[in-house]
Every structure is written in structure tokens, then in C-alpha cells.
Amino acid sequence: ARGAIEPAGGGEVLQYRGGLLPLARLAPDGGQARHPVLVFADGARQVGLVADDIIAIAEAELRIAAGASRDGLLGTAIVEGHATEIVDIAQVFARLPDAVAMGDAA
């Protein structure tokens, strides 16, 4: 169903702009009915990062103050006065199967 997270190929996808967007999660699903999805692109490849919540959108120079607490993170930085976990989006892309790209047909 359009707008719904669906199982596919051992992972999860979302119908997005006429194709299937592979999804990544950094934490288990908290049981919420709806989740915001942040879309990242690297050339023809795209991934949707499933979030619990989007608190703010900020542009800031990052200085990582603490190391990564778990896989998929670069570490923690202070952003607008709050300790903020910084996602290692390159690692998220590296975890995707090579064949996954927006609009690829099997």
C-alpha cells in the first residue's frame, strides 16, 4: 500500500516516487503506527532512514564530542544546545544489498 512500510527481500521497503525505497533502521520499531522517513541519495542509490521522530532540522558545523554508542552512528555532537547522535549514512548505504537502487525491477 502506498505510504506503508512493507516487507520485501528480507528487509523493509516503502513505495516512493514510482519505485521501492529500501529502508534502514538504527533501532528496533517502537510500535508506533507511523514513522517519519528521511531519504538519502548517493548517485542512483537511495535509502530511507526510519526515525522515531524529527525534532528539528538544523545546519551546524559538527564536532563529534563522544564516540559512537552503537553501529550506524558516527558519535554524538552538540547541535543547537542538545546532545545529538550523528548517523553514519555511508555505513547505512554500505549495509544495503548491491542490487538495491530506486526503481530497479527484479
Record the SSE blueprint.
Blueprint: E1 5-8, E2 11-16, E3 19-25, E4 37-42, E5 45-50, E6 64-67, E7 73-79, E8 82-87, H1 89-94
Parallel strand pairs: 3-5
Antiparallel strand pairs: 1-2, 2-3, 4-5, 6-7, 7-8
Q: Provide the residue-averaged pLDDT.
A: 81
Largest sheet: 5 strands, mixed
Q: What portion of residues is helical?
A: under 10%
Number of strands: 8
**Rg calc:** 15 Å
Any low-confidence stretches, pLDDT <50, length ≥5?
101-106
Structure description:
This protein has 106 residues and is mainly β. Helices cover 6% and strands 43% of the residues. The chain has one helix at 89-94; strands at residues 5-8, 11-16, 19-25, 37-42, 45-50, 64-67, 73-79, 82-87. The strands form 2 sheets. Strands 1-2-3-5-4 form a 5-stranded mixed β-sheet. It has a 3-stranded antiparallel β-sheet with strand order 6-7-8. Strand 7 and strand 8 form a beta hairpin.
Characteristics of this structure?
106 residues, five-stranded mixed β-sheet, 8 strands, 6% helix
Summarize the model shown:
This protein is mainly beta and 106 residues long. The protein has one helix spanning 89-94, and strands spanning 5-8, 11-16, 19-25, 37-42, 45-50, 64-67, 73-79, 82-87.
